[in-house]
Every structure is written in C-alpha cells, then in structure tokens.
Amino acid sequence: MAAKTSTPSASSPSPKAGRGNRSATVWIGRLVVFIVIIGLWELLSGTAFNSFWLSKPSLIVKRIIDMTANGDLWFHMSITLQESIVGLIIGMLGGTLLGILLAFSGIFQKWVYPYIMALYSLPRVSLAPLFIVWFGIGMTSKILMVVAMVIFVAFYNAYEGVRNIDKDLMDMMSTFKAKWTHKLRWVVLPSITVWILTSLRLNIGMALIGSVIAELVGSNRGLGYYITYSSNMLDTTGIFTGLVLIMIIAVVLEQIIVQVERRLLKYR
Amino acid sequence: MENNSHPKLEIRDLRVEYDSKGQRTVALENVQLKVEDGEFVSVVGPSGCGKSTLLKVVSGLLKPAGGHAFLDDQEIQGVPSQVGMVFQNDALLPWKSVIDNVRLPLEIKGFAKDKQLEEANRLLKMVGLDGFGSYHPKELSGGMRKRVALARTFAYDPEIYLMDEPFGPLDAQTRVKIGEEFLQLWENVGKSVLFITHDIEEAIALSDRVIVMTSRPGRIKAEFKVNLQRPRPFYEIRFDPEFKELQKEIWAQMSDGE
C-alpha cells in the first residue's frame, strides 16, 4: 500500500528538473568515456604496446606545452586557422550567393545543375596538386583548396533552402507589391538562415580538411605541415599533437556557430 | 446597386487551366462575376472547386487561359495595387514580431518608420491585440494570428479585400467571434470584399450576395441576394427566418448534382 502511494510523488518533479538531471547524466557519462579512453591509452602505451607507434596522452600534453612556450604552436595553428577561415568565408559567401541566384534563375538552373553536381562528385582532394602548381606552396593555394571543399555544401544548402521557401509567403509579399529587395530581406534570407547555418556547421570540418590536406601536399608551415614534418622524423607524438590541435580548432569553431545559431533562431 | 456600369471588379468568361504532370485540368470555366464598390460578395462551394483559383486570378498571381478580369475597368495584369489578400493560413512571417508583421505593407509602401509603428499599433488595438506587438506568431493562438493577418491587410488599406477561407482553420467558437469582429470592422470601412468559404452560414451572415460554385470544372451555379439588415448581428442573424430560408436554398443548390 505504502509503495503504491509513493510512486506518483516520486515521479512528479517538474519536467524542467527532469531534463536538468538528464543533461547532468549525459555530461557525467561523457566525462567517464573520456577518462576511460585516455586512461587506457596512457596505461597501455608503453606496457601492452610500444609507445613509439601510438605515443601517449601525457607526451602529447607535454609537447603542446613546449610548443606553446617556444611559439611553434601559435605559428602553425594561426596559419591553418587563417587559411580555413578566409577560405570558409569566401566559399560560404560565393556558394550561398550562387545557390540563391541559381534557384531564382528559372530555366537556367536546369541547364547548369547537372554540371555542378558532376563537379561536386569529383574528389576535390585531388585538386590540391593542381592548386599548388598554379599558385605555389603559399597561402593562396591553401585558401583555394578550402574554397573548393566548402563551396558545394554552401551552394547546395542555399539552393535547397530557396526551393523550400513557403510559397504563400512569397505570394503574400507579391500581393503587397513588394520589390525583390523587400522579398530578399523579409522572406528569402530569414527563410534560408537555417540552411545557411547548417552548411556553415558542416563546412567547418570541410574547411579544416581542405587546409590540412593542401598543407600535407606542399607547404612550409601550418598544422598539416607540422604533421608531415613529424611523420618524416618518425615522431608519432608530433603527429598526434597536430591531430589533437586540429580537433580543438574544430570543436571551438563549432561551438561558436552553435551560439550564433541560438541567437539567430530564437523565434522558433 | 442597379447601375452595373462601373463595378469594382468584373470577371467575364473566365477560364483557368492547370498543367499538372502533363495533364491539362480545367479549374474554372465560364465564370461571370461582378463585385460593386463597397459590396461584400461570398463564394461558397465544395473544396477543390477552384474558389481559391478565382482569388489568385483577381490578385494577379495567376494568368487566366481565357476570358478577362477587370478592376475599375482596367484589365488585370500583374498584381494590381487595389487588392489586399488574406490567406487561409495567415501567411505571417514567423521570424518577425507581431508589430513588424503588421507594419510590413507600410514598409513596402515606403512610410517613415515612426509612422509605420504608430499605424501598426493603432491597428493592433483595433483588432484587440494591444500589448502583443513584441510577440512572435508562434506564441499566439490561431485566433490571435488571424487578427494579426487582418490587421496587416488593414494596414495595406486595399480597395478590395480578397479573403481565402480566412477563418477556415479556427475552432467553431473562435470562428464566430472573429467573424463578428471582422463584420463590425468591415461595416465601418465599407470596402469591397470577395470572400471565399465553404461555410454557408458564415457566407450569408457576412454578405450582400452569395455565389454558389460547382466543382470540376468550377462554374457559377447560382447567385443569391442577401437582403438582411445592416449593421447585422453576426451570430443572432442566424435565427432570422429569411436567413433560414436562404440557407435552405443555398444548401439545396450545393448538394444538388454533386
């Protein structure tokens, strides 16, 4: 009897508290997974297998500290960041603009769409050597590579976004005799904001892939270069350090986008 | 309304065709229609009879395959400046606040910002939404959203209102309430209205004339003049014997030959 009456009161805390609990569980769970994996790596490296091949978390942390002290860290990271961000901006702007224009271009979109998709199916990584032949091993070839990686996702999202605009809203604007500038500002851009943010999120990873690959193929600076350099020295700790730094950049940039998203999509 | 020399809206021999998947479907055929200045005309008919298509032609969003549509004796080409549309699903901008939604037509017309806000606030008060300016459409009930949509069209101040089942998705009570408020507002404004609905009672209670359409292809089947007093009590008028008689006749026309 007592158990029966206690059940409903136990399950009655407000839904908000329940959600808070669940998110705490999620974070604790994540932390546990992190500690287990890093801990196993640390323990097994040097005992179960040779730490020469897989390095060790403590060695990587030490390397990051050393690199910060002698300035190498910021030198390589800033180069890769610059290439990625400049390329990301150019690619996002260009792709999005292209997507909007093409979606409104009537029959023209049917002419060019298959060719854009054909280009998209090309493994763009294979363009890196071409860009290096054209622009040398400097920044330009890297930025171009990032643009090539980023532009298609941006294009496709903007294009699909425009095609998914609520037709009633466009009709409504037309019946108020709105010019295209008003339609763009009040309907088109707000409608495709979700799509643009999605492509921005996907493209952060793409941009890093682009810059690092281009650096691997030919450069004298950047995290990609640091990885190849370490590889030539058979320095696995260096390779892993480069990978960890790339991962950190990706996570930080993604978090920035999440915050931007929250602000822009508050109305939902 | 004896003089039919200069109607606000005139439609002659209208024919509209749709091209869907290579199939030509006739949506409207041989439609004749006149709306006088200041007249409230309702079109009733089963769903899919092309009622909404009729509004799209008048608002210039759709080109007819044959026949003519005139506003103030001018053939309709592109979106005419005299029409204001109220859409079935409100067509509010979800990313804009209520006040921004209402001032949109004024922004398009190029009014100064403070003038826009002043007018939008006046209209919000008029439709009973004083104090809701900073809300977003998602935060409002269906009836409130409808009021915002009405306020927006009032802001545009058209010469003829085109209303596509504007109270359709509302529940019965809200529907009567909004209908009543709209009737009062309209009786003060006195502009022409072409009102689409499938609700016979709503049509009679609001209109000066009710037009019955058949489906596939949409044709005008019958026309009824509503001689009930104005201003009209939107709900109580339904108990008037003349109202009942009209309702019976219109229902007979609609159900016959379906």
From TrEMBL, chain A:
Residues 1-21 are annotated as: Disordered. Its main location: membrane. Residues 1-17 have a biased composition (Low complexity). Residues 77-258 form the ABC transmembrane type-1 domain. It is found in: Cell membrane. It is a multi-pass membrane protein. The keyword Zinc-finger does not apply. Gene3D superfamilies: MetI-like. The chain crosses the membrane at residues 24-44, 85-108, 115-137, 143-165, 186-217, 237-258. SUPFAM superfamilies: MetI-like (SSF161098). Keywords: Cell membrane, Membrane, Transmembrane, Transmembrane helix, Transport. This is NitT/TauT family transport system permease protein. It comes from Paenibacillus barengoltzii J12.
